[in-house]
Amino acid sequence: MKMKAKAARRRRGTRASSVMAARSLTDGSAVHKRNSSFCAGLKHGTIAPHMNELVRTDRLARRYVMGESVLSALDGVTLSFEAGEIAAIIGRSGSGKSTLLQLLGGLDRPTSGEVYVRGRRLAESSEDELALYRRQDVGFIFQFFNLVPTLTALQNIELPLTLAGIPGAERRRRASELLERTGLQGRRDHRPAQLSGGEQQRVAIARALVHEPPLLLADEPTGNLDSRTAAEILGLLGGLAGKTILIVTHDRGLADTFAKRTIELVDGKVVSDQRR
Amino acid sequence: MAWANLARRKGRTALTAAGVLVGVASLVLMVSLGLGLQRQAVQLIETDESMRTMTVRRVKNEPGKKKVSPFNFAFDAQMLPMTDKDLDEIRGIPGIASVRPELNLFLRVAVEGKEGSVVYPLEGIGADEEARYAKHLVAGSLWTDRNEKACLVPTAFLELRVNLKPEEAIGRKLTITGFLQEENESAEDSTFAVVGVVDTEAFGFKGRQIYLPMEQALTLRERKAVSPLLPSKRGSYLSAEVRLADSRQSEEVAKRLRNSGFATLSAMELLKQINLLFLVLEGFMACVGAIGLVVSLFGIANTMAMAVLERTREIGIMKALGARNKDIGRLFLAEAAAIGILGGLTGLAVGTLIGKLLNMIAHAAFDLPPSVSLFHVSLWLAAGSVVFSVFVSVVAGWLPARRAARMEPVAAVRFE
Predict the structure, then answer these.
(1) Residues of A in contact with B312 (CB under 8 A)
(2) Nearest C-alpha in A relative to B313
(3) Of the candidates B210, B215, B207, the residue with the CA atom closest to the CA atom of residue B193
(4) Chain A partners of B4 at a C-beta cutoff of 8 Å?
(5) ipTM summary value
(6) Burial category of A126 from C-beta neighbours within 10 Å (exposed 0-12, middle 13-18, buried 19 and up)
């Protein structure tokens, strides 16, 4: 794999006017380190949908009830992401970054607060509509690849199209194209168990891209890979022009090299949101 | 995809499908036995000739009041012997082509050149009926003179009782003696030459009688009938055989006869009763057979529940990729159905084979005629058993599939 990350980063130009707000729903006293030239704190609910805005959250909270105690995984997160933006979400394990990703991807529903996609409230969607949203607008990449073990590389890549009911020939054409783009031509009929970690993650990336979603959500995509392979995978992700990519990681160095915007979560709250 | 998922755990799938197999096989075996016997009975009864004839008896009490069941038709206390006057009355009823008395004459018959003798029914044929029997001769011809000491024998008699080919039987003499005891009579009086062989198949259950010219048969009955239960004098008969002008008028003619104070028993009524009886029998056998299938339901449910648990993560992945609840539910239902198809088809095959095997054993053990098959797998039974096994499987897979469908995508993905 060629290293494309730097070239990709250069391509992102206009993000100075990005609307950003990070607020705490519960106490409002959380300290936000903001890059003041980029950000303007706005009152919730009055955020005008920005021209290029793809996803926005408003005082998003997710609490898990565990017997007697309530675990607050996410606590009043207000963020906005533009189309084509690449952002890293960092934080230690348990900081709520994965939960944020799941809420953005419609895999989970918030306890309170809202997720807006292109100005539309996700909470209004039925189960089936959420599935449709995931099928059309979101591509997921997981730390543990999450390929279906019984399917070949090609079939795994085809899966989102299969679920969307796209005919076989078209499916194979598009999946094959991505197989080539990710450099896996020779692995077409291999099952996940026969692939290396890096190859599996490339299949997973191809699978996340095959239905051409505008939003790519990557949860520790390199967490399970050695550093050389991780660099390859990041290069691959960085080369995806025009997609909104949110990458969750606990590695600040990785975030700095990969993304122009780094959001840090601590205990379910946004503590910093920096752009370079 | 359902098949691929099943292929993944061949052992477990095979064991679960084997449960269905046993259930379907027992179902098929039981019901096919019922169907085989039913077919045998129906074949025996249902022919063009038999559908055109009915047996008629005189009833004691008010006309039209009582419909006599075929099962107490012969020995019902309300029955009266019939007279020649009754026969004339019947002849006058519209829709009836011919009437002849039934003699119900069971006598001992010895065939020339063969050891021993057999008890066999004999009947008389009137002059007006000769053409009808002449049409179904497989060998020989009709008597030329009604005073000739001649008879027609049915193929069933030759095949099953004396083991002769039709051609070999022509010209042989039959010596007829009383049912119970030998009588001291001149042999000539009761010796009849076989002139023709009648096809049993053509006459159905009425095709198992030796036929004599009516006059001679009546004489024979007077002399040899010994039963105190049955009439033996001329002009007195147990019953009459009525031949319809058209088999489709069976119901109407039977009604007219009943209104005139007769009881009727037609092949059609008999068939109706027999079919009803077999329906009940087959229903019962299907229930017994289905027990196995119901037991296998729990096996399928267990297998599917385990599959759902094992594949929690996979379900999560599929959901993350945009699978709707119903997509997941359908996938698991399809897997359950696939187990049903697998077990259903193999069970059908195994059940059919066991039936064939048992049939062969029965043939070897009891020397049945080759046309008899005890087990019959009809298209309906084959299709029905497979459809039923799929239905049972889908029912069994219902709850596990629902659980899979309703699984929270996040919980499923997080499941490590």
Answers:
(1) none
(2) A146
(3) B210
(4) 150-151
(5) 0.74
(6) exposed
Domain boundaries, chain A: 5-15+83-109+125-275
Q: What CA–CA distance (Å, rounded) separates A125 from A122?
A: 6
* Gap between the Cα atoms of B380 and A82, Å rounded: 64
User: pTM for the complete prediction?
Assistant: 0.68
- Sign, CA dihedral B31-B32-B34-B39, equals positive
Residue B61 lies in a domain: no
Q: Which residue of chain B is at minimal alpha-carbon distance from A64?
A: B411
Query: Nearest-CA residue of chain B relative to A102?
Result: B410
What pLDDT, in 10s, does the model give residues B237-247? 888 989 888 88
CATH homologous superfamily, domain A5-15+83-109+125-275: P-loop containing nucleotide triphosphate hydrolases (3.40.50.300)
Q: Residues of A with CB below 8 A from B413's CB?
A: 102, 107, 142, 146
A132 and chain B: CB distance < 8 Å anywhere? yes
Residue B61 has pLDDT above 80, yes or no: no
With CB atoms and an 8 Å threshold, state whether A108 touches B409.
yes
Distance from the Cα of B7 to chain A's closest Cα (Å) equals 10
pLDDT bin (cut points 50, 70, 90) of residue B280 is very high
Lowest mean pLDDT: which of A13-22, B13-22, B97-106? A13-22
